[in-house]
Structure prediction request, 955 residues.
Amino acid sequence: MTPYFLDHIWLIPLFPLAGALVMLLFGRRLANSIVSVICVGSVFVSFVYAVGAFFQLLEKPAGERVFERVLFQWVPAGAYHTASGALGNFVADWGLLLDPLSGVMILIVTGVGFLIHFYSIGYMGHEGGYYRFFGYMNLFMFAMLTLVLANNLLLMFVGWEGVGLCSYLLIGFYFKRKSAADAGKKAFIVNRIGDAGFLLGIFLISATLGTLNFSQFPAALQAGHFEVGAPVMTAIALLLFVGATGKSAQIPLYVWLPDAMEGPTPVSALIHAATMVTAGVYMVTRTNAIYQLSPYAMEVVAVIGAATAIFAATMGLVQNDIKKVLAYSTISQLGYMFLACGVGAFAAGIFHLMTHAFFKALLFLGAGSVIHAMGGEQDMLKMGGLSKHIHITWATKVLAALAIAGVPPLAGFFSKDDILSKTFEHSRGLWFIGWVTAGLTAFYMFRLVFLTFHGVERIHPDTKAHIHESPWTMTGPLIVLAGLSVVGGWIGTPEALGGSNRFEKFLHPVIATRPETGIEAAGAASRGTEYLLMAVSILIALAGIWLAWEMYLKHIQWPHHVARRFHGLYELVFHKYYVDEIYDALFVNRTKDLGIFLGEFDSSVIDGLGVDGAGWLTRFTSSVSIWWDTWIVDGSVRLGSRLVWLFSYPVRMVQTGLVQSYMLLIVVGLVGFLGYYWFLYHR
Amino acid sequence: MVPASHYFLLSLALFIVGVIGVLTRRNVIIILMSIELILNAVNINLMAFARLLGSVNGQIFAIFVITDAAAEAAVGLGIIIAYFRNRETLLADEMDLLKW
Amino acid sequence: MAAGTTLLFYFFAALAVLSAIFVVTARNAVHSAIFLITALLATAGIYLQLQAEFLFAVQIILYVGGIMVLFIFVIMLVNLDVAMRQEQFNRQWLAASLIALALGAQLLFAFWLVRHQGGVLSHAPAAAAALQPNTELVAQGLFRDYVLPFEIASILLLVAMIGAVVMAKRRI
Prediction:
């Protein structure tokens, strides 16, 4: 007798889908309040079901916390031989898998998603296209939940693409703005590049393991006798990671995320902070069994994660748009998550994913609240001193900033510390990068806080007149998220601080254990090192905050001087290292050139040869036909008539009407007759 | 008697002159006269052979020829007069109503 | 005697041919008619030489006295002056002459062949007495042996007469 919520797990993605369908069919005619009830309500119901399912999962004993349910067979089964000759049975069902990992994910997605939906009621209240917004948001929830609950890679890819589509739709929500439309395109296209790698990885998995079902991976890997470091595993892992870099904005495919800030702020919060961008991390964790078979791939993941983290952090230092800072911060934090996965600390990566969802969503929603108060202004240089006006926003923002900086006892500290300590055991170099990034994170976060809420007021008088705190529909979620940012990390308290790291233990069954690579099994860091690392992390966080205080509150002319002193460097970083321009020159414009070339080819060669050629051919054949008709067909007619004329000519000549010519003919005939007679008789 | 061949040659000469006259002259009256010449040539031939063969049939035939010539001349001239009254022309070239 | 006959023959023959040529080439139609009369008279002379007295008379009375007079009457009736000023020979005169001469040549050739092969022309002529008395013989032949053609000839003359009268009438 399957428990109710587990049995009805398939409803979780369907509630938002129903909401989206209603919006598609009727949304235009519904009042805003009805739209709100339907869409936000559907997410809330999903959340309730998710909670129910999660707890019913918990009721199961630790080793058996797996629930799989197949809804229907999507791609029919087909037997085939894998690359190694084993017999594989290709089956792709529409199936849902609930285990600790997906359980955590659905809680995050529906919980934070619900809060953001609720927030949007207030934020998007006076925007046009209200129903369209919620329809897309609900569609996104459906796709994301499908992605997370999928029991096989193919269905996950469906969700993957779905979230990409919704991202495009929502980034380009203000489609009348060209920059928004372009950003949407950019996101989708860059994603697509990653998806190509993802697909190749899926194909390779299918060819090597003979199955795409997650629950069958352990058995398939066992049967294949793959050794650690097998090239095919490295290839699969790297290909999957390409997809992850696209979706989760790592180097080199991160360029779409800053532009994605064109979308409404709730979109940035939900999709580009809490949920969609984490899909890459989720995917890597899901397939950790494959990754652990390839130390080389994991090294690549870790290095790229660390590099992205510090790279993005440097860019976030000099941005002036409040949302752009947060975008680079997201990229940077995602780098942390991948760093964690790369060193084998998959659970730590998911932990950071969860805490990051809380405080990043809070940061974005808070930024939205600020923008709302400022009447649409997003440039921090035009803000300042807002703490006096919008208290709740300010308080929650500060909490979120402390959380992301990694100040204990807030959530960010625990997750970041988890990652950094596990990294330290793996590689000092990577740890150092992560540690510096933490400092940079603290710095730019508090730069944001100080520029926005404190210091000199640089607000335009017109805007200042309208500053107001956001309504309760917006501040409510802020407060809830703030609370989560505070307590959210406590379930991952490491043993060093007296906790039992229940989070990690909870996820333990999901992570394959490999004595050679798995840090999970090792964890042999000494307590002393752990305490030292913790202290050092806290120190650099505080140092970052202090530096921000100095530069943006006390000596506010310092940033200006620094920028002037290191003018070249400042310009480089401010312009995002000109990566976009480089990509433009290398890829975008070259692709456009190809398109133009193909267009020219099409119009000159294909249209020329084909269409014009067909036209020319038609005209040619018609001229041949005309010639034929005129000269041959008509000609034969005319020939007939001319022959008649020709033959009639002598007859005509004869018929003169003159008697004498007739007489002459008679005589001629006579002469001829006589001549003939003589000839005949006297030869 | 002069050898019959002479008579034949004379007849031939007159005949050819008559033919040329018929074919060549434009004045219809002269054409008719040329026809008379032809008939005469034939008559000479007939008479010569009648004399040669000692038969009177040739002469009788010649009488008939003369009769015929007379009748034909009469009718022909009547036609010419009628035509002249209508068309005011004597030229055979201009009498081409047979064309239609 | 024979020489005289031959001379006479040549005289009449030359006269006939010459007159015939003038008939064909004269510009004035009256001249043509006169020349035709002389040609006919010459022909009559030849008839006489051939022991054909009756036809000699018939020729002169009928042909010259009848037909040629008729010709001259008609020439007078039609517009002579205009005809004299016009072109006398038609366009086909050269071709016609040549073809006629060709015809003549052919007939000459036939004559030569007959002469060569010894045809009837080489025979000696019959006795002159075979045709005497000429008129009686002619009358006999005409009214006895060939009476049918004679009657038909009469009717022909009748028809011709009616025809000529009708043709020449101004109003039928």
User: Anything to note?
Assistant: The CA atoms of residues 11 and 41 of chain B lie 5 Å apart. Chain B has a mean pLDDT of 90. Helices of chain B lie at 4-24, 28-53, 57-87. DSSP finds three helices and no strands in chain B.
